[in-house]
Design a protein that fits this description.
homodimer, 16 strands, Glucose Oxidase, domain 1, 8-stranded mixed sheet, Aminopeptidase, 15 helices, 2 domains, elongated
């Protein structure tokens, strides 16, 4: 999924810089307004995609005929085969798998119960990459913290021998900005707790729903610190644990998990090109991860991202001529548990002569796109303005230049590649993100049509415009 | 829960009959308009409950300190103890448990997978009272039916040796009227399928949510027909099964369940009286079931019903004087798996000299009350009109005389007891009904205040009005 950092708006920023860019434009060999003809083509492409796009069908196929596909599993390999078969029908000039070594992990089963003061079973799930408990489970008193920060400030004697419960709640927001702060307790929490002597960690799910479904997601064990089992409980279950403390009595949990790391396994990125007619070594990259968590069917995370970009490519391949630059779709392996595909792709890309001119990632769910952000050099602002003009009738507002792109493109961005970002409305996304509820039943086919129209228009302009997007801006 | 039969509205019916009743009133010894003083008392009681009611606290306590409480379980016994302790603080004149023998059932664990054509795991749960599968599970081809009716019309050779999948979808409605038709496949489906030679039954959940949580609920095995294991899958999981058939290939499922009936167990109804000052043997009965399904915490089904009536009783007990009639709260045992408490209570009531003048049940979830229905003799319509006048400012519309009350009161209604019915908005109730999502997180405390205000006003008038409600109308 993309980085959901809050993007500060600078109302004066864009017009001023656009003006500066316009004034400077004649002096910059690499900048240019897109031609009227290019804008017209993008507009027509947008309208065709909006009318005829059927990304939903690709998402249906992936979720129904493959289903959940955690990296390294048999279903992950089925997903790679599915992609190779289904991309073959979309009009690409070249499709190839790129082998990726991933580390497989098995969720196993989990059982979590309150044992005191008022026993009752809870709904919980292991965090991704977590170790399991001993076979007999762990039964221990619970110490509750309002936040990861409060845990970090705790003395070891408060924590030692206990189960740490971090009760921090994620905020709902259209831009998903609640995720970044809330996810820290999931990724860093286990080692912060273990460093202070905790025997296990339980977190209130990183999610906004009141459903009794726990949100999984990856943790990161720090080097040199004991690895303790870590679980997420749903929001209502966190309420139940918190409620036990009202009694003033000691609160105890029983935890069991058979989660475990498996060995290395083979997976693959899928690289599919619509070859550029004029500058085939200049690449406009579209990225989406093919793997998913195992609890749902990986519909919004990320079958719809895959489907949107497949359909975008299909419409681009249907254009009367090839774009000037190569349009490349990369379906990445193992985003969810380590960005293995991203690292493999970028390492190989660094060896090649091709240049990644700009990138766009689809991994923000299936909400309507409401805003367009960029992370490009200033000289490219006129191009961004032209793109925005084509997006505006889709109900997409102008954003700013603070985009950092998605997780899979981060390894290219760190090497200077600029990014474009179409923001999906994430108001309800974190109700289902990383849960069993991430199924196609939550997806509105009409929203996917709007998304394909937007991606197609933006990518077509990027692949044909004179001049480039420079380097990702350094702050 | 109450019967959610569609109640046909007769716009002309009520005014005409009210007129008839008014004309006939002088001739009927048992009918009377409530006095202005009684209406004023009820209005003040309504306003006090609306301002000060805290049913949420009772529901919090029951769901947090007891949690799920399936009949016959240790938690069911804890719920009985909880009720005895908590009712003691509400001002009743008499509180006593009434032993009830129930049959306990254990859900065990369930595993359901698509094995062909496209393997993936599903989220499923056993139906209540279902037998389990053999230890090795059942793997068999699936035959899909659009409805129970279609299954009933099927030839045995279509069904024999197969797993029957009934894919019928429940309709969402404010009055919950989708439940009655949809529930047939759950209660009768297992024996209909078994009679035709099916090895197991899987149904699309009787529920309206797109969450990946299955709705449990009781089945009824018919006598003399083999008992086959029966499961519900969530709506998205039903979509996944249905989607497999698009391939044209044979669809196969693997089913495992360790569900089993346990032996008889002890439970109890709790009977709590506010004794009538003038006619202690005339009873206005308020009923709610104390047991729950095991997947959620039984919040809307039925901790809130219990809580609403507890709080209603508390406000009535706070009145300056006792009501003319006895106001009785009955917390029923084992509504969900057989109405054992209802039958036990009514059998004993038939032996007693007390008369159940009218009954009202709270088992329709925690939605706002939007309508008031009755099932009373025509001579009582002026009383219903007066009650409606007090309810109107709470946003409750006038209904009709088609109410049949809830499941626990059905055994008294069948013996002629008239009923009153405050209808909770059930638009969203069947998203969570009988699922893990039935937790307190779904409950709006403000809606509970409105409910207590409504129940208190209605019950106060019923317990004090001159004249009675006659017999439940025969159609």
């Amino acid at each position: 999924m993309p980085s959901f950092a809050a993007s500060p708006r600078h109302p004066l920023f864009r017009p001023l810089l656009a003006l500066a860019a316009a004034l400077l434009a004649p002096a910059l060999a690499t900048a240019a307004e897109p031609s009227a003809r290019l804008v017209k083509e993008a507009t027509e492409l947008r309208d065709r995609a909006l009318a005829e796009g059927n990304a939903w069908q690709h998402a249906w196929s992936l979720t129904t005929e493959v289903g959940p596909r955690p990296a390294g599993s048999a279903a992950d390999r089925a997903a790679v085969a599915w992609a190779l078969a289904n991309l073959a029908e979309l009009g690409f000039d070249d499709i190839r798998p790129q082998p990726v070594e991933v580390t497989a992990w098995e969720r196993g089963t989990a059982e979590v119960r309150i044992t005191a003061p008022f026993p009752q079973p809870l709904v919980a799930t292991a965090l991704g990459r977590s170790v399991g408990t001993p076979e007999a489970g762990i039964e221990a008193p619970v110490v509750r913290f309002e936040s990861l920060a409060e845990l970090e400030a705790a003395k070891p004697e408060q924590v030692r021998g206990r189960i740490v419960f971090i009760d921090e709640r994620m905020e709902r927001a259209r831009d998903g900005s609640g995720y970044g702060p809330a996810v820290q307790k999931r990724s860093r929490g286990p080692s912060v707790a273990a460093e202070r002597g905790a025997v296990a960690l339980v977190i209130r799910s990183v999610g906004t729903s009141n459903d009794r479904v726990a949100h999984t997601g990856g943790l990161r064990y720090a080097e040199g610190i004991p690895r303790i089992p870590a679980f997420a409980v749903s929001n209502p279950d966190a309420d139940l644990i918190g409620g036990q403390f009202a009694s003033g009595e000691e609160v105890r949990l029983y935890l069991y998990s058979s989660a475990r790391m498996l060995g290395p396994a083979r997976s693959a990125n899928i690289i599919a090109d619509i070859r550029g007619a004029e500058k085939p070594d200049e690449i406009v990259i579209m990225g989406a991860h093919l793997d998913s968590w195992d609890l749902g069917t990986g519909a919004q995370d990320n079958a719809t991202g895959v489907a949107i970009l497949m359909e975008t490519a299909r419409f681009i391949a249907m254009m009367p001529g090839r774009p000037a630059r190569t349009v490349r779709l990369v379906l990445y392996a193992n985003e969810e548990r380590g960005l293995d595909g991203s690292r493999t792709y970028t390492a190989a890309a660094m060896e090649s002569e091709a240049r990644h001119v700009v990138g766009i990632e689809a991994d923000g769910g299936a909400g309507v796109i409401y805003r367009f952000d960029s992370g490009v050099a200033e000289h490219a602002f006129p191009v961004i303005e032209a793109m925005q003009g084509v997006l505006e009738p889709l109900g997409i507002e102008a954003g700013d230049n603070s985009a950092i792109g998605g997780a899979d493109l981060s390894t290219l961005r760190e090497r200077g590649m600029p990014v474009l970002s179409l923001r999906h409305d994430a108001t309800e996304y974190f109700d289902l993100h990383h849960t069993a509820n991430d199924t196609l039943a939550t997806v509105d086919p009409e929203a996917l049509k709007q998304a394909v129209a937007a991606y197609a228009a933006v990518v077509w302009i990027a692949a044909n415009v004179e001049g480039d997007f420079g380097e990702f801006p350094k702050n």
